[in-house]
Amino acid sequence: xxxxxxxxxxxxxxxxxxxxxxxxxxxxxxxxxxxxxxxxxxxxxxxxxxxxxxxxxxxxxxxxxxxxxxxxxxxxxxxxxxxxxxxxxxxxxxxxxxxxxxxxxxxxxxxxxxxxxxxxxxxxxxxxxxxxxxxx
Length: 136
Fold this sequence. Notes:
Elements: H1 3-14, H2 23-135
């Protein structure tokens, strides 16, 4: 606050007129200087506290990032394992189905060979019967 402003405010509130050289003005100047020094000291403390808080926040962000990476990596590994297991199970089921179909194909092949053999045998008997009938 300016000295003239202080003199005007004191005159307004207390109806006392101070001179610019009055010792009270010296005290006001000293008080103003002390307050300014206190503000500077407080600003320094607040800045240091904010710097520490900012550093702590950075550490928390880094820790959260590492935790997030660990979670994502773990989830990816778990998913890959689950997909591999599902693939293995599907492959086993397919192998079982292919084996069953192969077994059925082998049985069908044997049945077809047996039927063809019976058919050929029947035709041969029929040809032999006709040949015997014609030769007699």
